[in-house]
Amino acid sequence: MISFDSRRKIFNLSNEEYSYYLHVNKLGYLIHLYSGERLDDITLERVNERYIERYAYFDGQKEVCDESYYFSGQGSLFECGANLTSDLRGAYAIIEHTDKSKLTDFRYYSHEIINGKVNPEGLPHFKIHSNSEAETLIITLKDVKEEIYLNLYYTIFKKKAALVRFSKLFNRTDKSIFLERLASIQFDFVNKNYELISIHGQWGNDKELEVTPIGHSKIVVNDNHGGRGFRQNPAIIIKEKDANYDFGEVYMFALVYSGNFKFEVGLDEYDQGRLIALINDENFRYEVKAKETFVTPECVLIYSSKGINKATQTIHDFTRENLLPEKFALKERPILINSWEPFMFDFDTEKIKKLILDAKELGIEQVVLDDGWFGKRNADNSSLGDWEINKNKINLKEVIDFSHKNGIKFGIWVEPEMISPDSEIFKKHPEYALCDSTKNPTLLRHQMVMDLTNDEVINYVFEQLKNLFDNYNIDYCKWDFNRYFSEIYSSFLGREKEGEIFHRFVLGSYKLLDMFTKRYPNVLLETCASGAGRFDLGMLFYSPQIWGSDETNPYSRVMIQFATNVFYPLSTIGAHVSASNSLSMQDKIIISAFGTYGFELDPAKVSDEEKKQIIEFNKLVKQFHHIVTLGDYYVLSSPYKTNFASWMCVTKDKKEALVFNFNFKREQTKGRFIRLKGLNPDKYYFNSLTNDVYKGDFYMKVGINISAPLKEGMTMLFVIKEVNTIAKTVLNHKANQVKREKLL
Ligand code: DGJ
């Protein structure tokens, strides 16, 4: 998969689908040659020379380029752009050197090709199951002036069009240096009229897709909130302008990181593009002491020559198979009910026991006790950090035993990274809060952030968690994170290190999550940040599911899930049926069935008719959820372009599929077919919408006729199943049979 042509100094990283070529030029710069569909060989002429201009590069007084070789720092495609040299399109690294100079210029020093993969220490990462699954190229670069080395890691996987990148800096000088920027990946490209797809959002509207043409103004996709940041998500796509869900060239990039991040992308004066992904360099200045190292988060690059759906399928597979905690990754999750929306802080032992019995009756498998069970917390203004059970409110042991006796799993909510000023721990240790008390700090949701840059604080929090999880038989944990950072100061790190707080906090959170998941490997962890304010691959390394949004209104939910699905497997997206009355129970269930399915309502307030529906659908969801959990996801119709959000999931063996269609506005009869994807064209399939049997080819070319009046918010779910029978007739669409009763 990885080879090196030592004569031409070309590295070739190729698997069956994808090739990536780079070259060490005469000056030791790493030149990017090619990224795209598998290419068996490359010539340097016409690829490298294309960038040659009448520019020369000087090393001190001496011009190092010979007559025939002019090197353009501006015109070349690099793997590692320098700072304050002739390439001014955005640096890979900016280091304040021991002599205070920030000129940062790395050149080739050595390389190594190994079987398997190297992981960034202390950070979440993609995993391999055996060394034969991947190969890694490690290129060591050296700073032109000082004993500072930079390793670039490129891991290519045998069976996936995926390249995992990260960097590691080694300070081999005898003084501290200060890192002001270090990328995880740089991706220079020849412009093909590309555009960028990113995700932005806010609380209650967690994710929306946004498309921006990539032009000569630099686009920055970033977040600087310290973790709980809805504003933008650390996953983007760059694609050919005409590429769509099924056609065209698509590159997807996602950082395995849960803190401040940044993607920069734009074209230079020669219409060449540069994309850089990094820990956000805003307020970032990190001391790397003599002989120490600094490692960046991983960034995965996914390539598809067949549109967005293929890239989505690859990142879904890759996340499920190589990132999520193995114990849960490929398993269906229990149907849960959460106490938050029905009860908020107003519950007691009897109410939760009743919820358990109601859940049992409805075929729900897990009850989650959300916020409010500890300290004196009856509102959101106290007790975070005092993780002692409020015995006046709840007898936790009794409730858990009761739950287990009834065959229902039991889960609990925590928010370990936060501290309330109104708490016992804050009174004792105000320095545990990451807070500049001299600056009139903003209390968001009446709380502050724990100083997880300090091991003493991490250990305190972990002891509190142990006290709970060692002594109570808890099956599931919802790990919340409800504010962003402001006026931060760490009395542990001091003023000097303010530029390190954001990143060190993330490392602290990861350490705590690591300690927790290692001690409690059987506890199903669901992370959350006021909904999906921290939904990224970093969190998914520890928690196989993340709460998808506090917005449970089904109309908004469809949009949020549609955007989240592009990058994250459906099995990772917490999706619950709420008491919202904007759609019927059945419609709400259908939408939630395309995530980690559950409920946020009080069953006591649900009508008998709705209860029947819940019971019936819970059985169906159990029957078909493996298709959602493990199948290939296809967008059929985008709500950004049509009145419909339609998607489907198909099992890997193409024998079963689950199709979803939602129309936003009411529509009168129009000629309209749902054309399916991903089926075997030669096999016959039954569909539960019209109860017909057609050939896969027919479903994919003609589709199922739904030319009937469609009510606003009408939700369809139907199953496609391979059968051995011949189609009755391929022309009999039974258009008018699109009735609600016929859905499933
Ligand atoms: C925010 C979460 O998104 C909610 O689901 C709930 O757990 C509350 N926090 C509890 O405070």
Give structural notes.
Among the domains are: 2-325, Beta-galactosidase, Chain A, domain 5; 633-743, Golgi alpha-mannosidase II (Immunoglobulin-like). Helix content is 19%, strand content 31%. It contains 13 helices and 40 strands. The strands form 8 sheets. Strands 8, 9, 10, 11, 13, 14, 16, 17, 21 and 22 form a 10-stranded antiparallel beta sheet that branches. Helix 4 runs parallel beside helix 5, helix 7 packs parallel to helix 8 (501-519) and helix 11 (585-592) runs parallel beside helix 12 (608-630). The longest helix has 23 residues, at 608-630. It is globular, with a radius of gyration of 27 Å. The structure holds (2R,3S,4R,5S)-2-(hydroxymethyl)piperidine-3,4,5-triol. Residues 340, 370-371, 380, 413, 480, 482, 528, 530-531, 547, 550 line the site of (2R,3S,4R,5S)-2-(hydroxymethyl)piperidine-3,4,5-triol.
Morphology: globular
Instruction: Report the span from N to C terminus.
Output: 46 Å
CATH class of the domain at 2-325: Mainly Beta
Q: Strand fraction band?
A: 25-35%
The CATH homologous superfamily of the domain at 2-325 is named alpha-galactosidase from lactobacil brevis
Biggest sheet descriptor: 10 strands, antiparallel
The CATH topology of the domain at 2-325 comes to: Beta-galactosidase, Chain A, domain 5
Number of DSSP strands? 40
What is the count of DSSP helices, taking H or I runs of 4+ residues? 13
* Helix-and-strand structural type: alpha+beta
Average pLDDT reading: 93
Molecules bound to protein: (2R,3S,4R,5S)-2-(hydroxymethyl)piperidine-3,4,5-triol
Unreliable sequence segments: 50-58, 60-69, 727-744
CATH architecture of the domain at 2-325: Distorted Sandwich
Helical content (DSSP H or I, runs of 4+): 10-25%
Calculate Rg over CA atoms. 27 Å
